[in-house]
Amino acid sequence: MKALRECSVAVVGLGLMGASLCMDLKAQHLCREVRGVARRTQTVLDAFFAHAVDLATNDLQTGILGADIVILATPVRTIVATIEEIGPRLWPGSLVMDMGSTKADICAAMDLLPAGVQPVGGHPMCGKETAGFEAAECGLYRNAPWVLSPLARTAPEALALAIELAKAVGARPVVLEARRHDRLVASISHLPFLVASALTDAVAQVGAGDPAVWELAAGGFRDTSRVAASDTQMFLDILMTNRAAVIEQVENFEHHLRQLRQLLTQADEPALRQKLSESRTARAEWKKR
Amino acid sequence: MKALRECSVAVVGLGLMGASLCMDLKAQHLCREVRGVARRTQTVLDAFFAHAVDLATNDLQTGILGADIVILATPVRTIVATIEEIGPRLWPGSLVMDMGSTKADICAAMDLLPAGVQPVGGHPMCGKETAGFEAAECGLYRNAPWVLSPLARTAPEALALAIELAKAVGARPVVLEARRHDRLVASISHLPFLVASALTDAVAQVGAGDPAVWELAAGGFRDTSRVAASDTQMFLDILMTNRAAVIEQVENFEHHLRQLRQLLTQADEPALRQKLSESRTARAEWKKR
Questions:
Q1: Taking Cα atoms as reference points, which of B114, B83, B112, B115 lies closest to residue B97?
Q2: Is residue B170 located within the same domain as residue B191?
Q3: Which residue from A47, A53, A175, B67 could staple onto B10, CB 3.0 to 4.6 Å apart?
């Protein structure tokens, strides 16, 4: 395969993730050409005039024509549909990557691509709760973990090129099998989202009876609920394509919260102290990593 | 009562909250004298040599001797014990305030103070997950809500002086009855803490089986779990003095999370979209306030 520097890279989807990648690739001249494909004409224009891409289009087939690397950066279920749509038009030997938040369904769709195409699933872990082209920025991927999930059919050179791309924008590549990735992000990413949403719901219910609650909201609520402001469609795609693992993690969380509530109900202060201290230590240990 | 500028202010407890208040009072010359009382001799020395106070001591009774305003800034149950201990030694006409995170037990203890003393419960809402004198800083209270809970016996001039003090350090005074305060913070502050702790527990359980989960932890987990790193003793005092309200709010939260889990189990995408959109809107509306 070509080196990244010689590649034409087509990014499909110019939201936060896709557009930020284009900006890094173009500003640092990391590849031969950066193309952007967006559904909305306004985004096509924005990306072009912001110099985020060399070429912008809202026509998928012309956007990917002859590209050495095609990167799908839309919500998960759109990625699955796009893989099916573009399969027959992909250049033989081209690398197909994605930036979707769940991997099992996407990698299953990738496995059906024509034999000459090299698929590598991927998930850079650096979302913000703001979405869209307007939120895109250079340097978004710096120091972020970027999960790469090669398929059994993926050639080592294709995985190497994907790793080269992730490193080129400053990310830390982490190679993980698709199902293992999905189990882990159910815990570290999808569960926090549902927890933040339920917390917002609970406080909103109190606020309906006594709006003064919003006057008192400080850092604790702000941080714990932040990801509840994430894009709903993006998270629906995530939740619906990772249901079993997410449900398992919600139950895992419910178990621990129930324990805390029961210790409080029993006023069992020594046991409560023990459990809270363990959480505090676990959180502090992670921060030090 | 005297104006703040003419008052000798004694702050008992030189952790994050107490020491930050001393620093603002002293640096901006907001009162005649700032005294600090700390249990540990090292903190007494640190506060004095950092010019956070005019006078520092680890002897409670000499610290409060003749003070016009005494402000208790320790964990809640220590505040309750301190109120009982200092009652007989307080100057007639002096204002007694506190910075504890729950108000019912503290205001009940304040109600038993000698008749000449003026009590006002208080709770500035600007904690950080870092604690102790080392974490103290000027400007901590700027724009923070500072709840003030006068008692039935509190003279209007005493409440006015408490409001003057809160405003002097840039806080927004919010006058609320003690029990109402406790119900609201159970939702907006104590619930987020327990949720963050349970989330950390749930992720740690996954991490015990597959440590790679910690490699993938990004902003979602970081923010949603942040307050789990808060001081355990401080939160034990909070939880044990606000049990009924906290348990009620945990159950409120559990109800909403269960709904989300059930919608996911049923794969009821329209209802899930509806509920997640509502949370997103509620969170965005709060942010705009």
A1: B83
A2: no
A3: B67
- Same structural domain for residues B186 and B161? no
- The pTM (predicted TM-score) of the whole model is 0.90
User: Which chain A residues have a beta carbon less than 8 Å from that of B258?
Assistant: 254
Regarding whether A213 and A150 lie in a shared domain, the answer is: no
Residue with tokens 């005039």: A49
Q: Are B243 and A287 in contact (CB under 8 A)?
A: no
Each residue of B175-188: pLDDT tens digit?
A: 999 999 999 999 99
The ipTM of this complex is 0.90
Terminal CA-to-CA distance of chain A, rounded, Å? 36
Which residue range forms the structural domain that includes residue A144?
A: 4-176
Strand (E) or helix (H) holding A118: strand A118-124
Q: How many domains does chain A have?
A: 2
Residues B4-16 have pLDDT tens digits of 999 999 999 999 9
Nearest to B195 among A145, A184, A224 (CB): A224
The CATH number covering residue A112 comes to 3.40.50.720
Give the distance, in angstroms, between the CA of residue A191 and the centroid of all CA atoms in the same chain.
Answer: 14
B36 and B172 part of one domain: yes
Q: Is A167 on the interface with B (CB under 8 A)?
A: no
> Are residues A54 and A105 both part of a single domain?
yes
Report pLDDT digits (tens) over B6-42: 999 999 999 999 999 999 999 999 999 999 999 999 9
Cβ count near B59 (within 10 Å): 10
